[in-house]
Amino acid sequence: DGGITQSPKYLFRKEGQNVTLSCEQNLNHDAMYWYRQDPGQGLRLIYYSQIVNDFQKGDIAEGYSVSREKKESFPLTVTSAQKNPTAFYLCASSIRRRANYGYTFGSGTRLTVV
Amino acid sequence: GEDVEQSLFLSVREGDSSVINCTYTDSSSTYLYWYKQEPGAGLQLLTYIFSNMDMKQDQRLTVLLNKKDKHLSLRIADTQTGDSAIYFCAESRQGGSYIPTFGRGTSLIVHP
Predict the structure, then answer these.
(1) pLDDT band for position A98 (50/70/90)?
(2) pLDDT for B74-105, tens place per residue?
(3) Cβ distance A84 to A101 under 8 Å?
(4) Which of A1-5, A61-65, A71-75 has the lowest average pLDDT?
(5) SS3 sequence, A48-60?
(6) Chain A nearest CA to B73, separation (Å)
(7) Chain B residues with CB inside 8 Å of A45's CB?
């Protein structure tokens, strides 16, 4: 079955550490996105990529970095510069030319700073 | 104000209809969506409607769009306990990357 796989489901980070969240899709979708979700808030866009080797900052990119070396993969690194990284992180994908038909989301990674 | 607004909570009795409301501010919004999020999970696209439509029905779900008032609603008929979740309204506009703006979500609680 096609879908988006995010791993790990739970991640713990110590102060000052960088951590990388994995997102892999086998839907042959062109575009991929990273969102952050905090309790009682909507989804906030961190980064997005519409084609391989290209990505754009979203609304809250500071303290995060991404790469898009393969169509299937869009990992997100939460760097030590992100001062409040505890949140639920969601990856999504869409067909670029049909992004208006909505996104497919992964099941999320919950990141906690310890 | 926020671009997409929703009330935060809705409580209904099992078997009743639920109506979740959403207002948006951008008159150029062309595509409107409803997503469902169950606890600890990602979002699932329930349905979407284009701005040239007034209504869309899909089994127990009915979406109504009032473009004049920039108001979108999702009606769930015969609400079941399995419908308990957070429902997100989102809008995007034609051109560019179609990246949607999401509301904060409405928590639907279904009680027996």
Answers:
(1) low
(2) 999 999 999 999 999 999 887 666 788 899 99
(3) no
(4) A1-5
(5) EEEECCEEEECCC
(6) 17
(7) 99
Select the more confidently predicted residue: A114 or A96: A114
Q: Is A34 exposed, middle or buried (0-12, 13-18, 19+ CB in 10 A)?
A: buried
Lookup result for tokens 């990357």: B97
State CA B68 to chain mean position distance: 18
What separation, in Å, do the N-terminal and C-terminal C-alpha atoms of chain A show?
36
Decide if A55 contacts A66 (C-beta within 8 A): yes
Residue with tokens 């995060």: A64
**Chain A residues with beta carbon closer than 8 angstroms to that of B33:** 102
| Phi, psi dihedrals of residue A72, rounded to the nearest 5° | -80, -15
C-alpha separations of B98 from A21, A66, B94 in Å: 25, 20, 6
Kindly state the percentage of chain B with pLDDT values over 70.
96
Chain B positions in Cβ-Cβ contact with residue A33 (cut-off 8 Å)? 99
Looking up tokens 């997503």 gives: B35
